[in-house]
Amino acid sequence: MDSEENIRSLRMAVRAWLRENVPAGWREAMTGTDQASFVSAQRDWFAKLSEAGYATPHWPEGWPGGGRSLVEQKVIFEEVARADAPRLILFFVALYHAACTLLECGTAEQRERYLPGILAGEIWCQGFSEPNAGSDLASLKTRAERRGDHYVINGQKTWSTMAQYADRCLLLARSDRSGPPQAGLTYLLLDMKSKGVSVRPISQITGDDEFAEIFFDDVEVPVTDRVGEEGNGWAVAQATLASERGLTLVELSQRMRYSLPLLRDLMRARRCEGDSAARRDLGALIARVDATCALADQYLLKRISGTEVAGDASMVKLHYSRTLREFVSLGRRLSGLQGQYDPGFMRGATQETGNWTLDFMNSYNWSIAGGSDEIQRNIIAERLLGMAREPKNWQLESPA
Ligand SMILES: Cc1cc2nc3c(=O)[nH]c(=O)nc-3n(C[C@H](O)[C@H](O)[C@H](O)COP(=O)(O)OP(=O)(O)OC[C@H]3O[C@@H](n4cnc5c(N)ncnc54)[C@H](O)[C@@H]3O)c2cc1C
User: Does residue 211 line the site of ligand 1, with CB under 6 A?
Assistant: First the structure.
């Protein structure tokens, strides 16, 4: 029951637990080039959160930690942000994308087979994007050819977050090329240790390599690891994409709000508290951050009351990504030359670390991942404003 009393006492319990359990110095454990310390810090944090029941509040009743309402889940996300606790970046795809897809579209046997592994700390990755299929995901070409009781996979995926650590992959592949692009896709659960899988981490400008390319060379996947019917992968993929239901944006916008003192402290350190241009920009940013938090909250309330319309999620995502860019740009500008030193890097960094050059570079993740800003604008124009649909195969007019 979401009575005010229950929600308040959950909030206090989560807050007290976080106060006791957020590992001191977790940022240091995740800074630098040491992969092993990053992975073990993430595993330790996952184990703690999971034991307390705060890693799986979105799972149904009957599973450890499960059965929480959307309001309760929101409280947990807000408190995690407030406590500046680490994000579960290594396990996010497993806990949300994989688990929710299995819960919504998997068979009972698949749920029994895979959910306990996720609870035990298995890492999953999402293999949707390809070098020529990102915004236009339906044009993907990785092939899944049925041969008896298994599929044979050939092709390539890219930008797959944490794929180099993953035990399993949510794979969207083409099993039929004869129809329209969204038909003929099949959704498979692929064991990353299968023969013929190779993974190549992608080095980013930040120095991190949080995603990777995956190559498939005659990889066999049993038919029992297909989710949904053959050729129905597009519909299953929608369950994957909708799996976290806006909670991430609630958490991220709250993190931005709790990080505002970084900018105040920077102004003090740089002795520009009295600078009217800097004060004006900070004031405008505070208002924008507040608006982002309000939009994220409103979006979640719409989901709870069933009044969400197509395009609402795009508004929040776009607002968040633009506000984040303004936040880190202001930090970078105020920190002057000092902010331009070699930033080092931090694996799985939250967005606002006060390491402004690194934060600035990382902010680009959010204007691309999960649908770029341009795509969100198209969705808002077409679905919220009812403007004409973008013509297929549009081309910029070449200058006369
Ligand atoms: C941090 C991060 C993590 C990611 N993790 C994963 C993952 O785990 N698994 C996975 O499968 N993918 C992942 N991705 C990939 C992501 O989904 C794609 O990068 C994204 O969908 C954009 O596709 P693209 O990179 O192919 O760019 P493209 O689609 O080629 O777009 C290039 C540019 O053209 C613009 N553009 C494209 N089409 C239009 C249009 N119709 N109208 C106007 N402008 C347009 C885009 O906005 C962009 O600026 C991740 C990406 C990032 C940045």
Answer: yes
96, part of any domain? no
**Same domain for 253 and 236:** no
* Domain membership flag for residue 201: yes
Are 283 and 380 contained in the same domain? yes
**Model confidence pLDDT, tens digit, residues 177-211:** 999 999 999 999 999 999 999 999 999 888 888 99
Last residue of one domain, picked from the residues 210, 240, 270: 240
Same domain, 236 and 159: yes
Domain housing 178: 124-240
- Do 259 and 216 fall into the same domain? no
pLDDT digits (tens, 9 = 90+) for 316-368: 999 999 999 999 999 999 998 877 776 677 776 677 888 888 899 999 999 99
In degrees to the nearest 10, what's the CA dihedral of 175, 177, 183, 185?
Answer: 30
In angstroms, the CA 299 to CA 101 distance is 22
User: What's the CA gap between 207 and 347, in Å, rounded?
Assistant: 9
Q: Where are the beta strands (DSSP E) in 23-68?
A: none
Is 213 among the catalytic positions? no
Structure-token pair, residue 395:
């081309």
Number of domains in the chain: 3
Residues in the chain: 400
Does 114 sit in the ligand 1 pocket, CB within 6 Å?
A: no
Bridge-based pairing state of the strands 150-161 and 124-127: unpaired
Beta strands in 124-167 (DSSP E): 124-127, 143-147, 150-161
Residue nearest to atom 7 of ligand 1 (CA): 160
pTM, full prediction: 0.94
Q: Locate the ligand 1 atom nearest the alpha carbon of residue 93 and give its number.
A: 8
